[in-house]
Design brief:
The protein has helices at about 5, 10-30, 30-40, 60-70, 85-90, 130-140, 160-165, 180-190, 210-220, 235-245, 280-285; strands spanning about 50-55, 75-80, 100-105, 115-120, 140-150, 190-205, 255-265. It is built from 11 helices and 7 strands. It has a domain at about 5-155 and about 175-200 and about 260-285: 3-Layer(aba) Sandwich (Rossmann fold), CATH 3.40.50.150. It has a 7-stranded mixed β-sheet, with helices on both faces. The protein is of the alpha/beta class.
Length: about 290
């Protein structure tokens, strides 16, 4: 099952964090876009007919624009929890592209059941409860539709986590769900043939400040419910800084990311998946003005 810290994440705080980071996200999201390119390449093996694409956690629209280019005849929708991100994505949308953006919660998708052929998500579901979000993904996918996603595993930012552990026992780094637990959640949601794999990526920085600057720039704050509230004391921060500096390799500060890649299919079967009262047809979102 999902961890308590994931279940108790305050969505308002998550939304506010990414709203604040919207204007700097593209500048600092180098790793995020590298992972995006890796998962976009995996779509080459998907041969099913794609008419409607939903990009969950679209941010400023990097993947949504790539998906619109890959599937020029499809309706492509980008959705993000952050209205500020959605505003920037809309500003960058080319007028010829058949894509739309809206703000919404991945755990309560405002779309009709069985209305999406491809559900894509790059580095967003770590801010969600896996059971809730996968149940919603299964609901909106058409029979035979495909889910393609990435997220971060528990070894992500392990150096940062260990440096803080040497200072105190409070959680200072977000809790990331293990790949095997994600696979189990996919099965519980009724998604078929789940495939999971991991790539470990290490980003090297000239100093500890560079690590913290990148995390702040993309809005990746510590939002664990058990985190220490208020400002960190100067001495505690100095101790953390020294502990992290001691992990330098040939003068470079490492930051490890465990990138988890997953995909699964909506079973081909008759009957409807139960939907929520707030569901609306995709066509109502994507219809273009004449």
């Amino acid at each position: 099952m999902a961890s308590d810290s994931i279940q108790q994440l305050n969505k308002r705080q998550v939304r506010q964090a990414f709203d604040r980071a919207a204007n700097t996200y593209d500048q600092y999201a180098v790793l995020q876009y590298d992972i995006a390119e890796r998962v976009l390449e995996r779509l080459d093996v998907i041969r099913t007919d794609i008419r409607t694409v939903l990009d969950i956690g679209c941010g400023t629209g990097y993947c949504t624009r790539a998906l619109a280019k890959r599937y020029p005849r499809a309706n492509v929708i980008g959705m993000d929890l952050s209205p500020a991100m959605v505003s920037l994505a809309n500003a960058q949308r080319g007028w010829r592209r058949r894509s739309r953006y809206l703000s919404g919660d991945a755990e309560a998708l405002p779309f009709a059941s069985q209305s999406v052929d491809l559900l894509f998500s790059n580095l967003a579901i770590q801010w969600c409860d896996p059971d809730r979000v996968f149940a919603e993904f299964a609901r909106v996918l058409r029979p035979g539709g495909v889910l393609m996603f990435t997220t971060f595993g528990p070894d992500t930012l392990m150096e940062l986590r260990e440096a803080w552990r040497q200072v105190n026992d409070a959680p200072h780094v977000h809790t990331f769900v293990d790949m095997h637990d994600l696979g189990d959640a996919l099965m519980r949601a009724g998604l078929a043939e789940p495939v999971m794999d991991v790539e470990t990526l290490v980003v090297q920085y000239p100093d500890v400040a560079g690590v913290m600057r990148d995390l702040k720039g993309i809005g990746a704050y510590n939002m664990d419910p058990g985190r220490v509230r208020g400002l960190t004391g100067k001495q505690s921060y100095r101790n953390f800084h020294s502990a992290y500096e001691a992990m330098a390799i040939e003068g470079k500060i490492p930051a490890t990311y465990e990138a988890v890649f997953g995909h699964a299919w909506a079973p081909v079967a008759s009957g409807r998946v139960a939907g929520g009262d707030q569901s609306v047809p995709i066509s109502a979102i994507t219809r273009r003005p004449r």
